[in-house]
Amino acid sequence: MGGDGARALGPDELEALVERLPALDWTDVERVEGLDDLLRIEAVKMLREGMLSCGFPRISTGWMAGAPMVSMTLKRARKADAAQEMNAATATNDFMQNVDARRALAEALQIMLCRAPANAQPEAVHVNALIEAFARRTGVALCKLQWNARSQAVRAEFGPLKIVDDRLSGRNLWRYSPSYQRFFTSEPPREYLGNVADIVASEVVESVWRGVTTAHYVVDANLREVLHAALLDYVAGGIDGAGEAFEPSTLAGETLAMYLHGTAGVGKSTFVELIGRALEGGLQTHVNPSLRVHVVKVPVNSMRPEHLQHILRIQGISDWSVERMVEQSIAKEHLAILHLEEHPEDPAVQRQVFDLVQGMVDHLVSKYPDRRGHMIFAWTSNYTPCEHMQPNLRVVVPVRAPDHDAQFRWAREMLEEALHSRFAEQDNLVVHVDDDARPDFCCDMRPLNSWWRSVSFFAAELVADLAGRKASGSASMTICVKSDDSAVEGHSVLQVVASDGAQTEARVKLSSVDSFFFCPMTLSPLQAVLQMGLRGFCTPTVVLVDQSSEDDDKGGSGTEHLTSLREALCAEARAGPVNEDIHLRWRDLGILADEQDKEKIYGDASEIRGGLYQFIDDTNNPNVRFMLRELLETSARSRTHRFSVSKRHVFFFLVAVPGEPVSEQTRSRAHLVIKA
Fold it and tell me: Which InterPro entries does the record cross-reference, listed alphabetically (predicted)?
């Protein structure tokens, strides 16, 4: 193996190599009483001689009485050891001339210890397959591999296969990371480089930011600058050299804890969800393909501290507590992002909630002292953190809405993606949005969802109508969205034009009273939003009847408004072109005004099924536990630490109490606001 011109062994060749490996009897290792006895065991002798074939003249063997683990350290020769080097070389040559099984053992160990030339060393996936096959074939597993960049010593730890098969042993099969060859020089004798972790960490973090922006999230420049350094330190501190194990620092002051605060709707919670997904992708690409990052989401504002305490800590052997969700990740050496969403304003309550979470963390660390770093903490809030929290937070950063140009680019990209997704079979679909069609600037990004969803929905209807009128398929289609000069007073008007290469054209005018939700002039806004909801384009559909400017005796009753909205939905369901049967079920929550009314929404904190969860679960969803604000979010799914729920075909009709103001957080989540 090796030499100039050698090429990396492929899967078939590695499989043939494995077939030649001998079985190694490890049973006597646990019974020996001294090092001399250990070195006389045939399996140990064969491993030692195979290790020496990797180009090191000196080897030392370590062993702990009564344990099945044996360590072997390869070292370079000292000047005074010339005779020993010669003897070692002779022993190696004798070994290499022995039976084919021993030669195969040496070849396999050269690959496993990365001692083959760079052009002959297989990729990580193939080396790891060899390491696993080696364990299965010989009965001896490689459990640890370490290099010393200064002395170039290599330490390998071996144990019986049964110990890595035992999940309770704490021993795993050692594997290389996808970036492992970056840690070695390319020419023989291959030397280990100890300064590569920072480079790999930088690649992981850059991959994280690409993943976030690829998901059409506009990253605030200040957020990126502040968090970038913390992410870099976190990832670099967890990289275990050329191995795939990711072991972040266990020091409390070095854990990754971020606190993102800013006005409602700027994307704090969305960012936490996206960075979890992007971090997982970056680590899988560069460090460990099997590593998972789980986001455990807790809506803090949905419960009082005593209720939070109830769901945080473990109550039984198979409960659904937050602690159990986090434990299931870190116990398997995955990462868990504990997302504490909507942290309250009151500093006293902030402190109480923080201390409860810290108590849960301390309990987990007492059980898994080497896994503190596997927990990442993300607090999101409309308010700044109290002084009590700040010493424990690595990153405290305000999150701001993007500027007007960035908002327009984002909304345009979302509109284009929605149309390309809707007409995936259309080879040449061109979408153009004029600058004069840009939506207004908003500090809360949620109304922009209404803009691109409504415009793309009715543009898609136009294209479908045009395609139905065409005599034959056309290779191209162009959709143009532009402002219309014939604006009606009090309305913004957009014109959508669809055309194909055959000069066939269709157009529609869309109007809006708030410059965000647009619909054809032939439809009422209520008809339009109900059609979008019935077609699954709004997830969920939120309609708000605003009576904040009405006196108590002038405003309509909630029952009257809800009855009217139900009748309108039933009419659209009967008349609309829906391709699936829809069974309508209703739940009237009555007035939501006091703290105890939260239980109408998500049930008692001790219940797994309760409140709206039970209603939606019985209707069309598998699992959910949530807060009203979370459900109103314009996302396809709502998540908490327990459940994930699809909100397709879910409608929320909210009627404000006459004379009572409607919060901006609720107003911005509504697709349509009807003034009573």
Answer: P-loop_NTPase
DSSP state of 441: P
DSSP string spanning 237-251?
A: HHB-TTBS-B-----
User: How many Cβ atoms are within 10 Å of 244's Cβ, its own excluded?
Assistant: 24
Q: What is the pLDDT of residues 101-128, one digit of tens each?
A: 888 999 999 999 988 877 778 889 999 9
Query: CA-CA distances (angstroms) from residue 494 to 51, 406, 477, 630?
Result: 74, 20, 19, 31
Tell me which residue of 296, 304, 297, 269 sits closest to 599, measured CA to CA: 304
Neighbours of 554 (CB within 10 A): 11
pLDDT, tens digit, for every residue of 651-672?
888 888 888 888 877 888 888 8
Helix residue spans in 6-96 (DSSP H): 11-19, 35-40, 42-52, 82-96
Among 254, 263, 251, smallest CA distance to 365 is for 251
Q: Are 172 and 88 in contact (CB under 8 A)?
A: no
Residues 311 and 328: their CA atoms lie apart, in Å, by: 15
482: which 2 tokens?
A: 């532009």
| Cβ neighbours of residue 164 closer than 8 Å, sequence gap 6 or more | 135, 141, 143, 171, 172, 173
Q: What is the pLDDT of residue 612?
A: 67
Q: How far apart are CA 128 and CA 122, in angstroms?
A: 10
Lowest mean pLDDT among 10-14, 188-192, 219-223, 325-329: 188-192
The string of DSSP codes covering 119-186 is: GGSPPHHHHHHHHHHHHHHHSEEEEEEEE-TTT--EEEEEEEHHHHH-TTS------B-TTGGGGB-S
CA dihedral for 436, 439, 443, 448, sign (positive or negative): negative
Mean pLDDT, the chain, rounded, equals 83
At 529-552, the pLDDT tens digits run 999 988 888 888 999 998 877 655
Strands of the 375-381 sheet, one edge to the other:
293-299, 335-341, 375-381, 257-261, 395-398
Both tokens of residue 201?
């960490």
Phi, psi of 335 (to 5 degrees): -105, 150
Identify the weakest region by mean pLDDT among 350-364, 584-598, 660-674: 584-598
Q: How many helices and strands, by DSSP H and E, does the chain display?
A: 21, 19
Say which residue the tokens 């986090």 belong to.
Answer: 326
pLDDT of residue 134: 95
Tell which residue, 538, 537, 480, has the closest CA to residue 510. Answer: 480
Q: Which residues contact residue 78 at a Cβ distance below 8 angstroms, ignoring those fewer than 6 apart? A: 58
Structural element, H or E, at residue 329: helix 322-330
Q: What number of other Cβ atoms are within 10 A of residue 180's Cβ?
A: 22
Which amino acid type is present at position 467?
A: A
Query: How far apart are alpha carbons 594 and 597 in whole angstroms?
Result: 5
Q: What are phi and psi of 4, to 5 degrees?
A: -65, 140
**Dihedral angle of Cα 126, 129, 135, 137, to the nearest 10 degrees:** -90
C-alpha distances (whole Å) from 120 to each of 85, 107, 145, 481, 548 are 26, 12, 20, 56, 74
The whole-angstrom separation of Cα 436 and Cα 411 is: 14
Q: What is the Cα–Cα distance from 314 to 309, expressed in whole angstroms?
A: 10
Cα 85-88-93 angle, rounded to 5 deg: 125
Q: What is the DSSP string of 258-290?
A: EEEE-STTSSHHHHHHHHHHHHHHHHHHHT-TT
Element containing residue 60 per DSSP (H, E): strand 58-63
- Written as one letter, the residue type at 2 is G
Place of tokens 């200040």: 222
Prediction pTM value: 0.83
Amino acid identity of residue 319, one-letter, is D
SS3 for 429? Answer: strand
